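Example 3.2
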Amino acid sequence: MDYEQIIEKFYGEKFSTLYLIDSHFGTEIYGLFTGTGRYILKSFPPYMKSAKNEGSITDYLYNKCLNVARFLKTRDNLYYVEIDECIITIQEHIAGTTFQLNSAPDWFLDESARLLGKINSVLSSYEGLPLRFGQDFFRQIPHLKRENSTKRILCWQKLKVMKKQYCFTKSRLTIY
């Protein structure tokens, strides 16, 4: 089943344009235009089950007055479509600049850290949060399981840098 069929069958929408924005770690991110607006479509590999939780988490953040891109619900009142080869979500598009992976300017990184702190603070009271970032997070990605994988080594190096800068706790984000 292609994206056009999936969108029409599960969301009741037809799109006029679909274009690839980015692709990394097995996830593809597309821009999408329909008759009702502009959206972002994400296609996750089937092993990334946490993608199913994004819509509920985003609604929680939205209801706590954070400006987030809300997810569309399917005809079955779900925030995602799960088919054999992938998990698909569609969310609102928020106008702005899309940066390629690891290409954001310093001012954006500072602002992102502040927003991440707000999000972490709000989510500390969210009971349904099923996943915590831990050492095993990147191990769920199949191509990163091999010990000699260059991508795995790069991910771990980035994670070590993040650990030096941020300490995540259940109640808040502490910046060192």
